[in-house]
Amino acid sequence: MSPSLDRVTAIALPAQSRIVDIYPTTDLADAYAVELPAGASNDPEALARFVFSQSPRWAGGLMRVRDALVSVFGLKTARHLQALDADAMKERVGLFRIYRREPSEILLGEDDRHLDFRLSVLCSQEPSPASTRRLVVSTVVRCRNRLGRVYIFLIAPFHRLIMRASLRRAARAGWPPAA
What InterPro entries does the record tag this protein with (predicted)? Predict the structure, then answer.
């Protein structure tokens, strides 16, 4: 594997993403990019499913701690979302609801009492002589209240670590091939 193929880079939200103007204001906005090798899938849903299946084991432990803490406030937990019926799970990628599918992008997210968030998984082509393909995962969060602002302040560093680690692990595992 080329050393650049597992390098995860923090970038600005991509201008071509539908996520850019989804909320009038945001309390968190970030994006991470990784190069896709020749022959890798262009299907953003398949790539999203693959990336989110590559979360490091320690992230599961953090989610269990998160769920224990937020359940006291009546917020949605991973256990609640995993218990949805089979029809509801068809419109989810992992824990995330699918809001929009496009040929090069899928929008995921969830709305809750404390905040709303959207994730974009975008396959982009760099306008360069090398025509590098990248996968960009972006997140935007809009807090609804003080609980949301405290929550995002506390989890933002972990969110960033998990996103970078999941993308790096996916690149090292080998991307799903193009259909």
Answer: DUF2867
